[in-house]
């Protein structure tokens, strides 16, 4: 009688990285190295070192049914931080940055963050960073797309008021009013709301993180997470190392 061969349990195979993860991991590692080096050399943050804090409200005027957090008209209290992203000398052009935190706009009523940077405004330049001269304010996009309703989505804020004059003669504060717009990939922009803000010369130490605090109804593409996270981790590690040395 011939015995059947003993069944052999298949060997465990390590989980393979998805191609989109790899696409973001390589440039993400480069950004991480740059953030870590800059954070250790500088005496402040590696990126967005100096900024201004603001508070206000987002009024959703044209609901977007594809994004849960913006699916109905209403207001969200918000906190914002404007900054010169690279921290270059005050007379030099720099990348304008705006961090937005919407209270209660995340999953299960948590807070949600969006990060904007100065870019072009056309179909393709909306994905390209743009330098701005000191005292100049303009459109800013989230630069990297997110997924909402099964499609790629980009957000944009555009100032609709003049900069806030400074009584101290040390540069204007950002505008107090912006539109919030949404575009599907490279499609046309559609206004969904308006930001009304009050600015302070004080700064804020909070970190804004759209990966850890997503907008309800929105998720990050794998390559975007792989691109952002290493640089954020490196910046936090550099900050801790700098604190131990002082």
CATH homologous group name of one domain: Catalase core domain
Tell me, briefly, the overall form. globular
* CATH fold label of one domain: Catalase HpII,  Chain A, domain 1
What is the subunit organization of this protein? single chain
| Proportion of residues in extended strands | 25-35%
Radius of gyration: 21 Å
Distance between the termini: 79 Å
Q: Classify the secondary structure makeup into a structural class.
A: alpha+beta
* CATH-level-2 architecture of one domain: Beta Barrel
Largest sheet: 8 strands, antiparallel, barrel
Task: Compute the number of helices.
Answer: 2
Helix and strand pattern: HEEEEEEEEEEEH
Give helix % range.
10-25%
Q: Which whole number gives the mean pLDDT?
A: 76
> How many E-type strands?
11
Query: Which CATH class of one domain applies here?
Result: Mainly Beta
Low-confidence stretches: 1-44, 233-239
